[in-house]
């Protein structure tokens, strides 16, 4: 306990006085989380809506796979991507290994299952009569999707929160693909691991505190948005 | 079967059968809906009413037969699930789905809400509406789109008596249109009497009777239809059986029939009596003070439906033919 207290005391000045590298890590972490969540949402939301709303052969299997991918170990994703990106591998010519782009790709792939599985579950949980009635009154597929998205917005926002959470805190795939190189492609989570490995505990604690504050701020913001879901004015064009 | 003539036929089904999985839920149904009429589709639970409605709307494929539709068909499902927005916005959304131009939606939505007595609910969020109010908005959606054929699946289900009576009264005027044909699935016979020009009675997936309510009540075509229409009394009279509704039986000290009261069931305005006779069992309504169980009473019959009996060896296995 005494040791933790000492490290906390030592960490505080590091945060107050700032450190150019720390700000760079915070900025890169926010960038990775935002871009990965945005791309995962852009790709995953249509897939999730299709899985939740449409009827096609194999949809049950695909829903099961989407749910199973929630338990995908990040280290496994990192290892597979690494094997695909090394020289002479299919993606080797792109020279992505130990680059920031590789970190973005890894985080996007890890965020994707949350968006797909949770948004599919959110629209499936809507009252079945609501969407059936829309179809029977002539709603086109885009109208039904827009209605489902609007009605299930609280659940869809939960999917985005989960995706953002994993993008902020994941460390294994980032380390494998980015190399966790000081001053280059570290996120707050991977930088914490780096400092612990180097026995710089005060730095590790300082970075961890910043990470926790960042997670709390972003999650609370989204949480407030979610709790006031009924008041959010999401407008989709419904005119034909 | 006994269709009205003159007005344009807007929907016709001929020998339609519908399957759900391997089970044939609707068998060999033929019927017509004409402009200006309100038809009630009645039947016991599991008779296939909602399935037939889905097939008529084109939401379910027919296994056999043919459905011809003239103009657009709208169906209002039994469950009044509304989007999380205001009542007016819900109706406007339905108009958008239907393809109504944006500039007309607000006026038509308000007109429909007014027609069904829900204008005061226009700005109310769907989540704040009661069951009866949700049903009004649900009906307004269906009316607002102005379909040529309107199919309503149990629009008054799950409402208490007072709310239902009020909604029924408003719906009666809102649904009446000279250019539209309306088919309403109802569970309660009283709703059918209040709304419909014509009844279709579906039992075990088959259309067993069609015709004006009064006509069917006076002369039900089969025993099954009679039983479904509330003919719960039965007297054997030689080669015929007489089926009666409680309204056909009147307690009368000078009446020709004698019976023992076997059961007394209190109802709102008196009692419902179950009467045992040598050759049958009848039911009647009586004011208070009512006879007690075991008491001997006299009565007379004012009507009832007669069906020939084809005799078999056992009393419980009477085969009853269609009435002539």
Strand elements of chain A, count: 0
Radius of gyration of chain A over all CA atoms, rounded = 21 Å
Number of helices of chain A: 11
Radius of gyration of chain B: 23 Å
Helix content of chain B: 25-40%
The description of the largest β-sheet of chain B is: 9 strands, antiparallel
Look at the structure and give the CATH class of the largest domain in chain B.
Alpha Beta
Low-confidence stretches of chain A: 234-240
* Shape call of chain B: globular
Decide which structural class fits the backbone of chain B: alpha+beta
Distance between the termini of chain B: 15 Å
Output the CATH topology of the largest domain in chain B. Rossmann fold
What does the average pLDDT of chain B come to? Answer: 88
Describe this structure in words.
The complex is a heterodimer of chains A (240) and B (324). With 240 residues, chain A is mainly α. Chain A has a single domain (2-231), classed as MetI-like fold, CATH 1.10.3720.10. Chain A is built from 11 helices and no strands. Chain A has helices at residues 2-17, 20-53, 59-68, 74-85, 100-124, 128-136, 141-151, 153-169, 172-178, 188-197, 201-227. Chain B has 2 domains: 9-218, Rossmann fold, CATH 3.40.50.300; 230-320, no CATH class. Chain B has helices spanning 49-57, 87-98, 102-115, 131-144, 161-175, 189-195, 213-218, 223-228, and strands spanning 9-20, 23-34, 38-42, 64-69, 73-76, 149-153, 181-186, 198-203, 206-211, 233-237, 240-244, 249-251, 257-267, 270-277, 280-286, 296-301, 305-310, 319-320. In chain B, helix 3 (102-115) packs across helix 4 (131-144). Chains A and B meet through helix 6 and helix 7 of A and strand 5 and helix 2 of B.
What keywords describe this structure?
heterodimer; A: 240 residues; mainly alpha; MetI-like fold; 11 helices; disordered C terminus; B: 324 residues; alpha+beta; Rossmann fold; 2 domains; nine-stranded antiparallel beta sheet; six-stranded mixed beta sheet; 18 strands; globular
């Amino acid at each position: 306990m005494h040791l933790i207290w000492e490290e906390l005391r030592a960490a505080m000045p590091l945060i107050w006085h700032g450190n150019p590298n720390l700000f760079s890590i915070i900025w890169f972490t926010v960038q990775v989380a935002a871009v990965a969540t945005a791309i995962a949402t852009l790709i995953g939301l249509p897939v999730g809506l299709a899985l939740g709303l449409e009827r096609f052969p194999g949809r049950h299997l695909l829903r099961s796979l989407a749910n199973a991918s929630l338990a995908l170990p990040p280290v496994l994703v990192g290892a597979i991507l690494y094997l695909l990106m090394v020289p002479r591998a299919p993606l080797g010519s792109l020279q992505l290994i130990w680059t920031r782009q590789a970190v973005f790709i890894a985080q996007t792939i890890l965020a994707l299952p949350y968006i797909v599985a949770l948004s599919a579950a959110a629209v499936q949980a809507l009252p079945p009569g609501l969407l059936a009635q829309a179809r029977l009154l002539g709603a086109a597929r885009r109208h039904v999707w827009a209605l489902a998205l609007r009605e299930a917005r609280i659940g869809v926002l939960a999917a985005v929160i989960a995706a953002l959470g994993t993008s902020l805190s994941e460390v294994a795939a980032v380390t494998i693909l980015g190399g966790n190189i000081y001053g280059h492609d570290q996120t707050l989570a991977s930088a914490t691991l780096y400092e612990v490995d180097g026995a710089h505990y005060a730095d590790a604690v300082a970075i961890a505190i910043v990470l926790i504050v960042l997670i709390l701020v972003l999650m609370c913001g989204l949480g407030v948005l979610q709790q006031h879901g009924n008041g959010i004015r999401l407008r989709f064009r419904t005119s034909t | 079967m006994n269709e009205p003539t003159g007005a344009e036929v807007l929907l016709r089904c001929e020998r339609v059968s519908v399957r759900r999985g391997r089970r044939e839920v609707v068998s060999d149904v033929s019927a017509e809906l004409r402009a200006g009429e309100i038809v009630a589709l009645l039947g016991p639970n599991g008779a296939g009413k909602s399935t037939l409605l889905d097939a008529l709307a084109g939401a379910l494929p027919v296994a056999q037969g043919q459905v011809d539709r003239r103009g657009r068909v709208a169906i209002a499902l039994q469950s009044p699930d509304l989007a999380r927005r205001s009542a007016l916005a819900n109706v406007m959304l339905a108009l958008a789905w239907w393809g109504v131009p944006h500039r007309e939606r607000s006026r038509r939505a308000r007109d429909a809400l007014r027609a069904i007595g829900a204008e005061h609910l226009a700005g109310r969020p769907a989540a704040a509406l009661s069951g009866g109010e949700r049903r009004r908005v649900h009906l307004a959606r269906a009316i607002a789109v102005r379909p040529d054929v309107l199919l309503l699946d149990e629009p008054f289900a799950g409402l208490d008596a007072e709310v239902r009576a009020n909604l029924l009264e408003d719906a009666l005027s809102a649904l009446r249109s000279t250019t539209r044909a309306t088919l309403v699935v109802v569970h309660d016979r009283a709703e059918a009497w209040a709304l419909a020009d014509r009844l279709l009675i579906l039992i075990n997936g088959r259309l067993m009777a069609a015709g004006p309510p009064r006509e069917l009540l006076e002369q039900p075509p089969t025993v099954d239809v009679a039983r479904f229409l509330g003919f719960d009394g039965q007297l054997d009279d030689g080669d015929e059986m007489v089926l009666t509704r409680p309204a056909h039986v009147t307690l009368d000290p000078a009446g020709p029939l004698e019976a023992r009261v076997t059961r007394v069931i209190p109802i709102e305005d008196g009692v419902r009596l179950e009467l045992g006779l040598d050759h049958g069992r009848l039911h009647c309504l009586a004011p208070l003070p009512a006879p007690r169980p075991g008491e001997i009473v006299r009565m007379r019959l004012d009507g009832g439906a007669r069906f020939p009996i084809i005799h078999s060896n056992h009393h419980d296995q009477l085969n009853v033919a269609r009435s002539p």
